[in-house]
Protein 1
Amino acid sequence: MTRIGVLISGSGSNLQSIIDTIKAGKINGEVVVVISNDAVAYGLTRAENSGIRTAVVKHGDYNKRRDFDAELVRILRENRVELVVLAGFMRIIGATLLNAFPDRVINIHPALLPSFPGTDGQAQAFAYGVKLAGCTVHFVDEEVDHGPIIIQAAVPVLSSDSKDDLKSRILSCEHKIFPHAIALYCDGKLRIEDRRVIIAGSDELLLAEESLISCPGLG
Ligand code: GRF
C-alpha cells in the first residue's frame, strides 16, 4: 500500500475522487495525510469526514518559500508519505520538497499541457478559442506545470459553452484521470524515460478505460 499525502488549497473535489476510488478498492494505496495552505479549505472537511489526518500550513506564516516547503516535508515525512499528490494546491513547489521526494510528486492541471500552464488554465483555453480542451496529470519538476506527462484527457469546447460549462466538463475528466494515474503509480506501472512516461500495459489499460477517451457532456 503506497502512503499518499495530498496537498490542497480549496474545494477538494479531486481529493474526494481519490478517496472514493480508494474506497472502491481501485488504488493500491491510502491517503494518510491531507495538508492545506488555507485553513478554511473545504477539502479539509472532506478529509475529516473520511477519518484522514489533516494539517494546515499557512504560506503567509513563512517569509521564504524554502521554509514553507520544509514544513510540508516535515509533515509528509512524519506521516511516512511515499507519494505526494498536488490536488488543486495553489502554491509553487520548490527544490526543498522536490529533492525530498524525487519523481514522487504529481499534479493535475486543467489544460492540455504544454498549452495554458499557470493559473486558470480552463479560462485561458476558453479565451483562446480552442476547440479541444482537457486536463493533464504530470510529475512535478521545478518549472511550473512542466514535468513528464502521465495521462491527458481531451474534451470538446462547444459553441454554447460558458466558461463555467467548460470548467465543469474538464473537472469531470480530472476526477477520472487523476485517480487512474495514482492507481498506475501505486501499481508501479510508471517509468520515466527522459521526459516520457512509459506506462506498463498502457494500450490495454487506456483502451479498456473508455471513460478516458469519451467526452463527458456529449453523452
Ligand atoms: C482543479 O481544476 C485542478 O485542476 C486545479 O484546481 C482545481 C482544484 O479543484 N489545479 P478541487 O479543489 O480539486 O475541487
Protein 2
Amino acid sequence: MGTLRQIVLAGNWKMHMTQAETRAYIDSFKPHLSNLHPARQVLLCVPFTDLTAALEATANSPIKIGAQNIHWEEKGAFTGEISAAMLSEMGVQFAIVGHSERREYFGETDETVNKRLLAAQAAGITPILCVGESKATRDAGKTEAWIVRQLDEDLVGVDQSNLIIAYEPIWAIGTGDTCDSGEANRIIGLIRSKLTHQDVPIQYGGSVKPANVDEIMSQPEIDGALVGGASLTPDGFARIVNYQV
Ligand code: PGA
C-alpha cells in the first residue's frame, strides 16, 4: 500500500543559483519546515558548485542535498566530470541520473545512465532515475513501450532497495503543461508493476507547482515530486513540500 512508501519531494535547481543565492534561499526556506509531515523527505538537487554551501546551510535541518548528475568512472581523464566518491565524501546522499535534459542536450544514453546508477549506488548515493516520453512518442501511442524499455535498459544490475524513480514526461517539463494527475498515476503504476522491489518511491515531475501539487499528491501511486521551476523560490517550494491531501 502507498502509505508504507517514503514520500520524496525534490527540488531540481538545474543551472540556477550562486553560492550566495543558495545560502539566502535555504535561510528563508528552512522556517517553512517546522511542521513538516514526518513521512516526507525534502531534497534539494543543486549545481555542483553550490553543494558545499547547501550542505552547510542545511546542517541540523531535515533537508537533504543531492547532485544533478554523476560520472560512472572512479577517476581519470574525464575533463569536467565529477565522480561518486567526490560527492559522497562531501556528504551528498542523492543524485539525479538520466534527466531528460542530460539525455537530450548532452548525449546520455540508457547505457551511460545505467553505469551512472551503478556508480552512485556503489558509493552509497541514492540515485533518482528519470524516465519519460516525448510528445511524439506519446502521440504515436508508444508511451508504455518507451517507459518499459527505458526501465529494462537503465535498471540492469541496479539495487532497487536504494533507488528513487521520477516519471517525467518530457512534454510536461518546463512547459506549464502538467500531465493529467490520473494519467501520471497510471504510468507510475505501470512503472511499479515492472519493479521487483515494491517500495521504490516513484515521483512525478513536470510543471509541478503550488496550484497543482495537492491534486498530484492525492494520487495513490505517486510518492512525491521532482520540481524544477517552482523549486526556485523558497515560498513556492515550501507550499509544495507542505502539500495538503
Ligand atoms: P519543471 O521541471 O518543474 O520546471 O517542469 C521538472 C524537471 O525537469 O525535473
